[in-house]
């Protein structure tokens, strides 16, 4: 597979990398603390910085504002700048601005709405005056969510507010195993009552990948997406025509990756996170150039990477409203 794509032609040159966080770069505990960095995480990010290869961390977690999350990761040892940390709240702020929405009801902990406020969007919470008089309801990380919150959100939606959701995946990887994603459960209750459509701002939406591509100034098809979930990172990569690189340190074991259908099959199952470096060159590489050490170490001998059907990339704009995935990292 040296330098070959799924379709058998020249492999797309990778000019930027998007990393999942939980299960890919680190594992936290169920309260989102106690970070345990996974092997190769510091080395890979440090090397990409040295190569001047743009990268970003895209998490489905919304508990902390991006700058606060980046600071926590730096304290744990990861070389991450504030602008390289992207959360669903970052994407929601951009989306609501583009929609002209200036006021939102936030169902989430204190940090969930900070990116919206930073963008000039007024946020309110249930129990506050005018909580149902908003243009959007934004659901994020909310361990303390109660029925009053859900009722307020429903009342706002019945008054015409849009439903915007940080993450619609039921589980995420922690040191204690898979843990429930709160926004998934909250959104399910709201939609059961209101039958409202939702706009997903986290993975695997193509909206999230486009936001990162703009931030990195890299075309979608020149991105590599590195993650641990076929229904989250790989599905998002497929929707944008990006390269999908799978790790086995989170929710999905190697044998489970190898059983994935074509639509969720990665370009490579990495032996370790350090193998990402074999897939990228430097920011100075000319389009079409490939690093001399590019190789696929994804499959056991005799296993071929299955080609993607022509036209498969870029689909899914309408399917962003479907449930997908297993973790918010």
Write the layout of secondary structure elements.
Layout: E1 16-19, E2 26-27, E3 36-37, H1 41-50, E4 55-58, H2 66-76, E5 85-86, H3 88-99, E6 103-107, H4 114-118, E7 122-124, E8 136-139, H5 147-158, E9 162-165, E10 171-174, E11 177-180, H6 182-194, E12 198-200, H7 206-216, E13 223-227, H8 230-240, E14 243-246, H9 254-258, E15 268-269
Parallel strand pairs: 1-4, 1-13, 4-5, 6-7, 6-8, 8-9, 9-12, 13-14, 14-15
Antiparallel strand pairs: 2-3, 10-11
Describe the structure.
The chain is of the alpha/beta class and 329 residues long. The protein folds into two domains: 16-87 and 204-321, HAD superfamily/HAD-like (Rossmann fold); 90-200, Rossmann fold (3-Layer(aba) Sandwich). The protein has helices at residues 41-50, 66-76, 88-99, 114-118, 147-158, 182-194, 206-216, 230-240, 254-258, and strands at 16-19, 26-27, 36-37, 55-58, 85-86, 103-107, 122-124, 136-139, 162-165, 171-174, 177-180, 198-200, 223-227, 243-246, 268-269. Strands 5-4-1-13-14-15 form a six-stranded parallel beta sheet, with helices on both faces. Strands 7-6-8-9-12 form a five-stranded parallel beta sheet, with helices on both faces. A hairpin with an 8-residue loop joins strand 2 and strand 3 (36-37). Mean pLDDT is 85; it is low at 1-9 and 286-329.
The coarse overall form would be: globular
Mean pLDDT: 85
CATH class of the largest domain: Alpha Beta
Largest sheet: 6 strands, parallel
Instruction: Tell me the domain tally.
Output: 2
Q: TL;DR?
A:
With about 325 residues, this protein is an alpha/beta fold.
């Amino acid at each position: 597979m040296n330098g070959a794509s799924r379709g058998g032609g020249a492999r797309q040159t990778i000019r930027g990398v998007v990393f999942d966080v939980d299960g890919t770069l680190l594992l936290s505990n169920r309260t989102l603390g106690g970070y345990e960095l996974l092997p190769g995480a510091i080395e890979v990010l440090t090397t990409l910085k040295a190569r001047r290869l743009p990268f970003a961390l895209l998490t489905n977690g919304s508990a902390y504002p991006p700058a606060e999350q980046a600071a926590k990761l730096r304290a744990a040892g990861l070389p991450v700048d504030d602008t390289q940390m992207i959360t669903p709240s970052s994407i929601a702020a951009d989306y609501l601005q583009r929609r002209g929405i200036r006021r939102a009801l936030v169902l989430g902990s204190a940090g969930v709405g900070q990116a919206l406020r930073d963008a000039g969007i007024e946020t309110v919470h249930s129990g506050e005056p005018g909580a149902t008089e908003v243009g959007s309801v934004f659901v994020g990380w909310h361990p303390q969510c109660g029925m009053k919150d859900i009722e307020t959100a429903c009342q706002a939606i019945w008054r015409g507010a849009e439903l915007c959701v940080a993450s619609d995946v039921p589980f995420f990887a922690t040191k204690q195993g898979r843990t429930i994603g709160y926004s998934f459960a909250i959104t399910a209750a709201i939609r059961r009552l209101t039958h409202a459509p939702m706009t997903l701002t986290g993975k695997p939406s193509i909206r999230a990948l486009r936001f990162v591509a703009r931030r990195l100034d890299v075309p979608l098809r020149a991105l590599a997406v590195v993650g641990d979930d076929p229904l989250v990172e790989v599905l998002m990569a497929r929707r944008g025509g990006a390269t999908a690189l799978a790790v086995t340190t989170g929710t999905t074991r190697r044998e489970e990756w190898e059983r994935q259908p074509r639509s969720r099959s990665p370009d490579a199952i990495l032996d370790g996170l350090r193998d990402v470096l074999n897939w990228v060159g430097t920011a100075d590489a000319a389009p079409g150039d490939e690093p001399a050490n590019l190789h696929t170490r994804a499959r056991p001998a005799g296993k071929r990477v299955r080609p993607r059907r022509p036209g498969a990339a870029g689909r899914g704009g309408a399917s962003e409203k479907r449930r997908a995935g297993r973790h918010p990292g």
